[in-house]
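Here comes a specimen:
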Amino acid sequence: MIAVGVLTLSGGPTAAHPIVTPFDVAITFDEYVFPTVSDSTGQVVQGPGGSTSSGYNLIDDATGQKLAADNGDLADMTFTYATSPGGAASAGNRPDLRFRQLVSGRQITGRTHFSGNSGSPDPGTRQWYEVRVEFAAHLDVREVELNLASSNTAGLAWEFTTLTFFDADGTPFSTPPTVPAYLDATGSTGSPSTGNYLWADTQTVVGVGTDATQPGSNGTGDGVLWVSAAQTGVNGPRIGGFVWRTTLEDVRGTSNGPTQFSSSFREVRVRGDISRDAVADVRVAKSASSSTVEQGESLDYTITVENAGPDPAAAIEMVDVLPDGAAFLSAEIADGWSCDLPTVGSTGTVSCTTPTLEIDAVAAIVIQTMVSPDAPLGQLANTATVSSASVDPEPDNDGSTASVEVVPAATTTTTTTTTTTTTPPTTNPVLPPDPPSPTTTTSTTTTTTNPVLTPGPPSPTTTTPTTTTTTPVIAPTATEPGALLPQTGSDLDGSWLVGIVLLLGSGAFLVALGRRPDSG
């Protein structure tokens, strides 16, 4: 759509809703993150006091499926392998933890060992090993099941195992049980409290407290067994992880020789939801319609917003602060977007939002501006930025600047050519009077009165009878150049004068005088 000076109100980006993806995976330790080992290799920690941790990316956060290779998203679980401070670091005197490859599959095996004879027939020294598994914060784990083996086996020492579940803060759902020394223990298997399970039958050893002890019968925790968090009463808030620990207590008599035990962690099944913020690489690119613009010309900016994924982006906002010297005219807005626009003819901020932008979606917004006639010459830079409520793994591409060169407006030159023509004045030739024609004497009385064209008062006009024959002179009229105007007057002695005034074209005149003969 196209908006011209339209103000569309929007509330701006809001907090994104987390993406929730269910998952149900079984970790069998055959996954790519765990070492490929044989029975004699794969040791990860050895006592006394050994400890090491590893984070594993095992679940595709987008699909909830188990990964066959690292996809670069978040680590899902942290395994911490640890052994007790007691014991001696030797091939025959340990605790330790190692990965083992068996016919039935790969597993984590813990081993404890007591060498020589016990110094006392009374219960005494303990060794332990444990695996602590913590689930990442984006996993909302609702159920956990473990496949364990040989947790409470008969022998010359007392072997027992505890399993404790804890919440998202790492706090046990209830206080783990305290297992007293063998002679004080009542022996039990089951869940003594919420979030705890115990395999601690005391029937696995007989003759404790005598000079010679003997193996009893395997406890109910021996062999392969499954135990779940639900069996311990954990059904509600999310499970943060668990600790599996096997302990060996030396209860041998002085006549007994060395003894060793092992137990195994074979598999863990985890179900729940992956709850996480969307991860979306939202990027912006900006271009101008020309690399140069004249003062007073229009200039278009095209702003392209793209979501490169991996998730749909939520609550996207594009902001373009128009620079001084560029006034807003109109905007072409992509479908699904709304914009706050400046008043036409002013600078200001263009702010456009959309609730969501799908993976690989592209939206274009075109802003038309007018460069001010007095805009400063040189570079005119305009920057657009984009943001979203999603986690952006590449923030460096969230801004883009278009620069144009402002040049002076072209000037229009009007050339006026003036031609001056000088025309010489027109001179009318002075025509001489025609020669007098032969006269015929007639008796004529003529009275002529003409204005005097020369300065001064005119002479009195006197009508005098005459007996003459006058032939008119052919000459221009009195109003045309060259006109001959007869004039009469009186001289100083009273004689009559006859005058002819010749008017010239330039406004001059010629006076011809003649004296009439004295009649007496």
Q: What stands out?
A: The chain has no helices and 30 strands.
